[in-house]
Amino acid sequence: MDTSTIVILDFGSQYTQLIARRIREFNVFSVVLPCTTPPEKVKALNPKGVILSGGPCSVYDADAPEADAGVLAMGVPVLGICYGLQYIVHHLGGKVVGAAAREYGHAEVTVVAETPLFRGLPGTMDVWMSHADHAEELPEGFELTAKTSNAVAGIADEARKIWAVQFHPEVAHTRQGMELLKNFCLDICGAEQDWTPEHFIQSTVERVRAQVGTGHAICGLSGGVDSSVAAVLVAKAIGERLTCIFVNNGVLRKDEFLKVQTTMREQLGLNVVAVDSSERFLAKLAGVTDPEQKRKVIGNEFIAVFDDEAKKIFEAEKSSGEEIAWLVQGTLYPDVIESSSVHGPSHTIKSHHNVGGLPADMKLKLIEPLRDLFKDEVRRIGRDLGMPDDIIERQPFPGPGLAVRILGEVTAERVAILQEADQIVVDEIKKAGLYRKVWQSFAVLLPVKSVGVMGDQRTYANTCAVRAVESEDGMTADWAPLPYEVLRTISSRIVSEVRGINRVVYDITSKPPGTIEWE
Ligand code: XMP
Fold it and tell me: Is 515 close to ligand 1, i.e. is its CB under 6 Å away?
């Protein structure tokens, strides 16, 4: 690739992905690799610079992540961050010691030597620290560039092109963090700001066109942003030879099956095969109440329906003499990083089934046009592709859909009740201008009936929970403090408009300890 690249070696910090995102924000491409990546592999990417991330360990821990010290001697500029600084000091002959007091949170750093890393930045900076160990003796050739009242905060050996800081420039609390990263990537490394949406779209379209040749590709659409952007990109490359399959699994939001079809065909010009399999899914879900079992049933059934449709499409293609078949998937960069992380995939709390494995006899080859992108970049690309806001800004919706929002058994009747309530929640959140502010907002149908009174009538009906959360990435979330007015309207509309619900409650649990979905 001819794009300027910064390699980030990951020592396990919770902020590693953030370093990559920050650098990409100023249009420089960056990749995250495990710290154990051999120097030859790093070199093969022809990086303009290397960043060593932070990490949770001490350099003295038995299981401390180890990089090959050869990465410090590749001749390209290196920036160590937090553990990255300690790693440099430890491996180049300095001394790291455990501190009596941890520095955690805001700290004031004083610059004590001129260095291109701090060029244009103030002499004292408010930064974010999160460390226990610190550097006590610097390796030969290094000078102190910054300090706090307790510890070394910056070092440099300009002859060897190595810089390091003890604080975290990638975190928003470090006010001059972006400037510091720009100083490193642009001035010190000389990286070009050539990672732009136009460049990405153009190079991806060319690559997919060359890859697929005269073949045919299929793509499972969910209506969400990732699969839609992936499909539009691939369609731009191979046009009509992409067929999208959109399955109604019986647990979509209200009117979604029709709405998504219309948008995809009429606004995005995609070639869509829509399959209404709701009865088939609901029949398989009968009597199933366990959340993981629901996911399994829906995941397996989805694969079966998708296979049937894919086979039909490829049979038709075969008659034209073309056998090579491709499957488009909307895999994103965080999944790629996760699957190659030194820590391995994180512990599964819920199994997230989307498009699963397809049968080997179809010999499908994968196209993953988004595998280099973070979610916010997918949105940027979608916007540049001219896709409408109501797809780009759509809140995430789980693959198993309303099934994991209906506690207890999923029946056609309960799906219809929840669809109505859910529609009201989304409607009112949009009207209040909060749809983009919250990460997700939805209704949950509980297996609880309670007594109410409507007019002069006693009622005995279902309870519905309203859930709205704020989050950056769905990994952690805060319950959203929706204005009382909005809650009041949602509640009164649901109770008066949805037959079968006579009580509405609001979920005020954050994640952790709760999860976003109720199942
Ligand atoms: P939880 O409930 O684990 O959700 O806090 C985190 C994010 O993941 C979504 N989610 C799913 N997405 N299949 C999916 O495609 C699933 O089975 C699934 N379960 C949860 C959830 O909506 C939230 O955005």
Answer: yes
Pair 494, 367 in one domain: no
Pocket-testing residue among 346, 352, 353, 472, ligand 1, by greatest number of atoms within 8 A of Cβ: 352
What tokens appear for 477 in the block? 């979330």
Asked if residues 381 and 229 have their Cβ atoms less than 8 Å apart, the reply is yes
Catalytic residue, chosen from 103, 170, 256, 301, is 170
Residue of the CA atom closest to atom 7 of ligand 1: 474
Per-residue pLDDT of the chain (519 residues; tens, 9 = 90+): 579 999 999 999 988 989 999 999 999 999 999 999 999 999 999 999 999 999 988 999 998 888 999 999 999 999 999 999 999 999 999 999 987 677 788 999 999 999 999 999 999 999 999 888 999 999 999 999 999 998 999 999 999 999 999 999 999 889 999 999 999 999 999 999 999 999 999 999 999 999 999 889 999 999 999 999 999 999 999 999 999 999 999 999 999 999 999 999 999 999 999 999 999 999 999 999 999 999 999 999 999 999 899 888 888 777 665 666 899 999 998 888 877 665 543 444 555 534 444 555 667 889 999 999 988 899 999 999 999 998 999 999 999 999 999 999 999 999 999 999 999 999 999 999 999 999 999 999 999 999 999 888 999 999 999 999 999 878 889 999 999 999 999 999 999 999 999 999 999 999 989 999 999
Indicate the number of domains in the chain.
Answer: 3
Distant-in-sequence, close-in-space partners of 495: CB < 8 Å, separation ≥ 6 = 452, 454, 501, 502, 503, 504
CA of 510 from ligand 1 middle (Å) equals 14
Is residue 82 flagged as an active site residue?
Answer: yes
Is 347 one of the annotated active-site residues of the chain? no
Residue 216 sits in the same domain as residue 174? no
Residues 152, 229, single domain; the answer is: no
Domain harbouring 100, CATH code = 3.40.50.880
How far is Cα 33 from Cα 342, in angstroms, rounded to an integer? Answer: 9
Question: Would the CB of 474 count as within 6 Å of ligand 1?
Answer: yes
Contact 8, 20 (CB under 8 A): yes
Residue 464 in contact with residue 494, Cβ under 8 Å? yes
C-alpha 352 – ligand 1 centre gap (Å): 7
